[in-house]
Amino acid sequence: MDDELAERARRAAETAALYNALKHDSDAQVGAIMGPLMGENPEFREHGDEIPGVIAPVIEDVNAMDRGEQRDRLGELAPERVEELEAEGEEDDQVLPDLPNAEEYDDIRMRCAPNPNGPWHIGHARMPAVIGTYAEEYDGEFIVRFDDTDPETKRPLLWAYDEILEEIEYLGFEPAAVHRASDRLETYYEHARDLVEMGGAYTCSCPGEEFSELKNDAEACPHREKDPETVAEEFEAMVDGEYDPGEMVLRVKTDIEHKNPALRDWVAFRLIDTPHPREEASDYRCWPMLDFQSGVDDHLTGVTHIIRGIDLQDSAKRQQFVYDYFGWDYPEVIHWGHVQVDDYDVKMSTSTIRELIDAGELDGWDDPRAPTLPSVQRRGIRGQALVDAMVELGTSTSNVDLAMSAVYANNRDAVDDDAPRQFLVRDDFDARAEGADKSYAAIEVPVDDGPDSAHPAVHPEHEDRGERHIPVGDAVLVEESDLPAVGERVWLKGYGPVRYDGERFAFLDADIDVVREEGVDVVQWVPADDNVTVRLRTMDGDVTGFAEPGFGDVDPDTVVQFVRVGFARCDRHDATESVAYFAHP
C-alpha cells in the first residue's frame, strides 16, 4: 500500500471510528470499522491484510478522547455525520431494520431452510446470522427446516444434516425446532387432497414442452377441467407410484392468463424414481415441489417472517394461490440481494466445491482454500466474527459484498487477548494457489556470548500469564529475509541485540533504545536444535517452518499468534510435525 492510500485509509477510519464511538457511546473497535470502511472504499480491499495495522493507531487515538473531543473532531472532519447522530437519537443503535408489522404478532417465528446437499459455504451463514439475531432481539424463535424433497437433482447427503446443525451451533445459535421435510410427506399429501377437493389442483399428463407452449400462450391445459373425483384418483395413483417420472404431475390451478407466465398453473407434485437416501423416506416416489412444500410448512409451523433472495419473488406469489385456497394469512416477506465474498478463488457454490473435492483439487470441505464454514472454523475464525460481519450487511435488496478483512478484524478483536505468542521461522512454501509466489528459507546462525535462554512474555499485555522459556543453544534459525547485512545489528525478539559478522551473531550490551531510537529491526527466531517442525496450512499453500519448543505443548484447537506472521489455530501434533491452520494477520 502506498503512502497516499494509507493516509486515505487513516482519514476514513478516523471519521468512522469517531462516528461509531459516539453512536454507541463506547470505544470503537477495529472489527466494527472494517466492514463499512471496505464497503465504502472498494480500493482498500486488495490491501485488507494491511488496513487493520494502518488504522489501529488511529482508532486508539479516537478512543483516548472524551466524548466532547470526539464530537468536536467529527464536526471538523464530517459535520454531516454529526447531523446524522443528532437525527438518529439514542434509540437507533440496532444494525438491522425493524421487522415489518412485528407488533401484529404475539410471537415472532422465523425459519432457516437449508438443503442438506453439503456443508454450508460462507454465504449460507448470512441467513442464520440475521434470523438468529432477529430472534434474539424479538425474543422469538429460530426454526430449522431441511428442505430435502428433491432426492435426485439436489440429492441430500446423510451426514450433512448434522453437519449443518453443528455449523448453526458454531455461529452461536440454537434452533427452537428442527424439521425434515422428508418426514412430512403424508402431511403434504393431505393438503394436496384437500386442494383437489376444493377444485384448486388438477392432474396433468401433458408433455413438458406442450404445456409450456400452452402456458406461454395463456391457453388452458385440456386436463384443467377434470372433475375432482378423477383428479383425486389419479393423484392417489401418483402417491402409489403407478406412473413413471414425467408421465403425470399435479398442478395448482391459478390464473392461466396471469401476466407472469411463471405463475400459471405451476407444478405442486411430480414423480421421482430415485430413492431418497434417508431410509425413512426411501419408499416415496411422489414428491412435492419446493413452493408447495415450503408454503405448507411455513403456515403449519407458524412462521411469521420470511427472508429470501430477491430472485425468489415469484415463490411468494405462487404460494399465495395456495394460501388463498386454504384461507391462510401469508407471512411477512423480506427480500434481499445476494452476498458476494472476496478473498477466495473458488466459486461460492456447494456443487462446485463438491466437484473440486471429488477431483482431488481440494482436500475436503475444510480445505483452507474452500469458502466454507468448516474451513473458516478450522482456521480458527470464531462464529461470532462471521455473524457480526453478516449482520452489518443488513437486509438490502441490492447485492452486497462481504470483505473477509472485516471478518478477520472481528476475529482479531475476539482472539487477541487470549492468544499466546509463539515464534515461527518459515522455511519453505508449497504454492497451491495460482499466482502464489512467496518463498522462505530458514538460515542457521551461531550465537556467541549471549544468555543461554530467552524468556519472552506469554502475552505482552498480560504479565500475570508469565513467560516462555526458550533455550538458545549454540545457534538460532532466522528467516533469510530477516538476516541483516554484514556488520549490521538485529534484535532477536525476547532475547536481545546481536551483530552479524557474515557468519555468526555476537550478543551486544545494548537496551531496547536501539530499536526505538536507531531503527534496529526486531525479528522472530527459534533455536536451531530444539524446535518443533510445523506445517502451516494457508489459503495460498502450505508453509513449512520451525516453531519454538513450547509449541509442541499447545493444545489442539488453541489459537496462537505467530509473532510477525499472524494468528493460527493449532490443529494437531503428529509424530513428525505439528499442523496449524492460518487464520489471518
UniProtKB/TrEMBL annotation:
Keywords: Aminoacyl-tRNA synthetase, ATP-binding, Cytoplasm, Ligase, Nucleotide-binding, Protein biosynthesis
UniProt enzyme class: ligase
Chain spans, region Disordered: 447-466
E.C. no: 6.1.1.17
Pfam family, one: tRNA-synt_1c_C2
GO molecular function list: ATP binding; glutamate-tRNA ligase activity
Domain of life, source organism: Archaea
Domain Glutamyl/glutaminyl-tRNA synthetase class Ib catalytic: 108-413
Chain positions of motif 'HIGH' region: 114-124
Catalytic reactions of this protein: tRNA(Glu) + L-glutamate + ATP = L-glutamyl-tRNA(Glu) + AMP + diphosphate
Entry keyword Aminoacyl-tRNA synthetase: yes
Subcellular location(s) per record: Cytoplasm
One annotated Gene Ontology cellular component of this protein: cytosol
InterPro entries per the UniProt record, alphabetical: Gln/Glu-tRNA_Ligase, Glu-tRNA-synth_arc/euk, Glu/Gln-tRNA-synth, Glu/Gln-tRNA-synth_Ib_cat-dom, Glu/Gln-tRNA-synth_Ib_codon-bd, Rbsml_bL25/Gln-tRNA_synth_N, Ribosomal_bL25/Gln-tRNA_synth, Rossmann-like_a/b/a_fold
Domain (tRNA synthetases class I (E and Q) anti-codon binding) ranges: 522-571
Residue ranges constituting the Glutamyl/glutaminyl-tRNA synthetase class Ib anti-codon binding domain according to the UniProt record: 443-502
Family from the record: Belongs to the class-I aminoacyl-tRNA synthetase family. Glutamate--tRNA ligase type 2 subfamily.
Classification via NCBIfam families: gltX_arch, PRK04156.1
Role this protein plays: Catalyzes the attachment of glutamate to tRNA(Glu) in a two-step reaction: glutamate is first activated by ATP to form Glu-AMP and then transferred to the acceptor end of tRNA(Glu).
The name this protein goes by in its record: Glutamate--tRNA ligase
Organism field: Halobacterium bonnevillei
